[in-house]
Amino acid sequence: MSKKIDVGILGSTGRMGAFLIKNVSEDKDLNLKVVHVYDELKTPLPKDTIITNSIDELLENSDVVIDFSAPKATEALCEGALKNPKALVIATTGLNNHQINLLQEVSEVAPLLYSTNMSAGIAILKKLVAQVASTLRDYDIEIVEMHHRYKVDAPSGTALTLAEFAAKARGLDLDKVRVSGRDGEIGPRKKDEIGVMALRGGDIVGRHRVGFYNDGEYLELSHTATSRETFSKGAVIAAKWVVNQKPGLYSINDALNL
C-alpha cells in the first residue's frame, strides 16, 4: 500500500476550512497531517492532526499545503516555502503585485498551483471566454460577478481572471482597458473596454456572467456555484496532482488537463 499524502491546511478556521478538513479527511489517498490556525478552530479533526500557528511547522509536516486564507497569510506561506520548498495549492484572492511575484519565486523551487477559483466549471469557462473573445472581436465584453455580503475584495479574483483571459485573447493589456465602475457623464463606451462589475448581497456563494454584446445580438456565458464545497473538492484534486509535479507555476486547468 502506497503512503498517503500528508496535507497541511492554511486557513483552516475560515469559511472554506471546514469543507477542506472534511474533504481531505474523507479522501483515501490523503492524510490531514497539520492545520494552521490564527483563531478558534471549531471543526473536529482526525486523531493525531497537528494544530499549529507556525508556518514553519506547517511546511515541515506537509507534502502539500492547501491555502484558502488571506493575502498576508499567503505571503508568509510563500516566504516560508522559499526556505523549505513544498508543493502548494493557493486559492487566496486579492493578492498584490509583491505577493504575485512571491508565487513566481516559489514556483522556481517547488510545484505551485495557483487559481482564483478551483471549480471545474470555471476552468472550462475560462477557455470558452478566450475562444469567444478571440472569435467575436468586435463584440463588447462586460463581466458581472455577485458574491455574499462578507466578501472583502472586489471585483472577485475569478472575475479578474476571466477578464484577463478575454484581454489576452485580443492582445490587450487588462490594466489599460478594465473599467470597474461607471457614474455620471462618462461618455460613450470605448472600443476595447472590458467592464468588470461587482455586486454584493445575501449568502450568494458565487455567480459570474461574461457577456459579449453587439448590434442585433449578444451572447452570455455564466457560472453559478451553489456550494463552497465545489472549491474545496477542486483543491483536493489539485493537491493530489501538483504534489507529483516538477517545480513550476500551474493552474487548475493543468490539473484537470484542460
Describe the protein's architecture and organization.
With 258 residues, this protein is an alpha/beta fold. It folds into 2 domains: 5-114 and 228-255, Rossmann fold (3-Layer(aba) Sandwich), CATH 3.40.50.720; 120-225, Dihydrodipicolinate Reductase, domain 2. The protein contains 9 helices and 12 strands. The protein has helices at 17-26, 55-60, 71-83, 97-107, 120-135, 157-169, 174-177, 229-242, 252-255, and strands at 5-10, 30-36, 50-52, 64-67, 87-90, 111-114, 140-147, 178-179, 194-200, 206-214, 217-225, 248-250. Strands 3-2-1-4-5-6-12 form a 7-stranded parallel beta sheet. Helix 3 (71-83) links the parallel strand 4 (64-67) and strand 5. Helix 1 (17-26) packs across helix 8 and helix 5 runs parallel beside helix 6 (157-169). The longest helix is centred in the middle third of the chain and has 16 residues, at 120-135. It is elongated and about 60 Å long. The mean pLDDT is 95.
Strand order of the largest sheet: 3-2-1-4-5-6-12
Question: What oligomeric state best describes the polypeptide chains here?
Answer: single chain
Architecture (CATH level 2) name of the largest domain: 3-Layer(aba) Sandwich
Instruction: Provide the CATH superfamily of the largest domain.
Output: NAD(P)-binding Rossmann-like Domain
Largest sheet: 7 strands, parallel
Helix run count: 9
| Regions with little confidence, pLDDT below 50 for 5+ residues | none
